[in-house]
């Protein structure tokens, strides 16, 4: 069996033995044909080509060339000053990069300002939940998305997960800002920079022996992978709010969807893969996200790091046991067990019994809180997440990596 690499096993749709035990890495689902129709996408039409075979035709060759030409340090330095959507690009960028970015930073013709205004209302009302949801529903879910976990672990940022988490959280923060896509906002800048980072990762990871040994593919971050991760964000947030019986007015949930459709477009996802409605998003998620979730050795280690997110802060309510219990509560026993998160004797039962009523009180569906102390702690958890993002986000700059994680 020595010449049978994990990738070959996975490609064959089988089960591989990882360092920490046996892991079924989502291959059976990825062997299925792509069925989701572009009729359900934002433009309602498209070639329908399998997104597992599409990456980023514009950004990938450009960034590969920047890396090969040795231009990345200069580009990163120049782009550090580019922060606001309306700001002109800095002077001195290579001409091919400038041309690409001028085009990539433009909002598509289907941008709807009324929907973006509704997204602001959504984010204002649900802002308190969003920190914990992006962090512990979406963030933890990313550790059981096998291709993403492996890519993140072996890329440069995998060596410093705290920094990486803060940079990723910046996108969650920017997309929820009042001015996300306006001149004085930062979401366009963050998305275009992230598009460049992903293109660099596609060039660099195939040079990593560690990644090559662990990954079930030759080039990471396909259009399919990006939609999987996209569903771990807005689709998972909406599913969880629905589970919590949080009623979101239709215009606001459409606005939230629209802000993420624009985010997807700016990240380089082709419009033909971006769902037009929540129904379409749910149907695509059922096809691309739900069946591929699985543990990997890399994802287990990433999750372990995420559980220490609150350590070193004054935020005592963001302790490891509470964050573990939150993960189990939000993602369920199956995923928590995959990630080897122990059942927490105090917090798990408390969340199971008291979170629902707590949310109902917050949503003013119930008149009086029966156990105020627990509710105070829950409120504190939500607040501390918001503060955590605020404090970690200040000096963050998303930069094009030039190497992989050396481990
Ligand atoms: C980098 C967001 C999809 C793997 C980043 C960054 C952000 C981000 C904000 C910059 C953070 C940093 O510089 O560390 C997103 C969003 C996605 C998405 C919103 C989809 C909607 C994916 C997918 C994969 C992936 C599908 C892999 C399968 C990576 C890697 C990095 C990265 C490896 C680079 C980290 C480094 O510098 O080493 N992503 N991402 N991303 N992303 Fe994504």
For this entry, give a set of tags:
about 400 residues; mainly alpha; 2 domains; two-stranded antiparallel ribbon; 17 helices; about 0% strand; globular; disordered N terminus; binds protoporphyrin IX containing FE
Characterise the protein shown here.
The chain is an all-alpha fold and 407 residues long. It folds into 2 domains: 51-292, no CATH class; 313-393, no CATH class. It is built from 17 helices and 2 strands. The protein has helices at residues 6-11, 27-30, 59-69, 72-79, 95-104, 113-142, 146-154, 161-175, 187-204, 209-214, 223-243, 250-266, 278-288, 297-306, 320-338, 347-362, 372-393, and strands at 16-18, 21-23. Helix 8 crosses helix 17 (372-393). Residues 147-148, 151-152, 155-157, 164, 167-168, 171, 194, 197-198, 201, 220-221, 225-226, 229-230, 267, 398, 401 line the site of protoporphyrin IX containing FE (HEM).
